[in-house]
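User: Fold this; tokens only.

Assistant: Input:
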Amino acid sequence: MNFITWAFLCAAAALSAAPQKDAVTSLVQRATDEQNVPSISVAVACGGRIFHATAAGYADLEGGTKAAPTTLYRIASLSKPVTATLALHLAEQKRVDLDAPIGKYVTEWPTATAQPTLRQLLAHRGGIRDYRSANEMFATVHYDNLSAALAGSVLQDPLLFAPGSSMKYSTYGYTVAGAVLEKATGQTFELLVQSVQPSLMIDNYFRLTPDRARGYGLYRGKLSNAPAFDSSLKYPGGGLLASATDYLNFLLALNANKLLPQDRVAEMWTPMSKSPDGRSGYGLGWMTGSRAGHDYVQHGGNQVGAQAGMRLYPKLGFAWVALSNGEHADLRKLGDAIEAIFLPASANCPTTP
């Protein structure tokens, strides 16, 4: 192939991709404006590769800092799929046992309390309670490690049910899971996360973090600063920071079996609980479902000053990640609109992004 032919093909591919990229950019800008949120950052993968990343609005309204695809946001419960992936990674290395009672690792677990397994915790079937009040969601106490966070939250609380007998969504259950991983390895949770995806980090309240978005909410219908809170109580279940492109790279690496072998990925994405209609489920840290005849895995998240959402269609290699520093953002609606551009056919992905 001579240079002129190659250049022509590249130009043709770029032109074929341009309308879809423009459409995604327009959707993100419109959602930011119509939903009155400070910013939204989105990254889209098509055909197993990053296709487009864009952002609208401001990461810091007072400082006038515009948002970018590389802006770091609180990803809330999108932390849970990362923690689950980490747990299965360590299980594959035989550094932790998914099915051992957690007292094997968390020796301070009360002897009178039944012991869930790590697998049950990841599937929200461990019997651990969730938040009791808004005060817990706005906690400002800082914990140096997850064992301390566990002692400061649910360690002495009775279980809601016998482990494995039911399901109750619980961010605190992931605090317990994280304590297991720290105890099993002797490493901090952040170092463990970065051994799987180096670009991800904990939302350390005291750390000066460049490019981190400020959080906002609505007060009497107007944008206002979100209250301060400390994520150290719940790093594994809702306390990580990432950019949209960081998280999308995590999804693509996982889907390409670069983080886990295929059998472990399948284990993680197999529902342990299902909705009453059977159309959706929850595996180990991941929600499952289907649309337009294609299976997907997904998760959403919301917390003080943040909203997050993602969905991955493994067989199509199609995924989107959307992050906002407005806690009232509707990212599911935006994600559905993005999917409408590309689905139902994976052939809607241009050959060359």
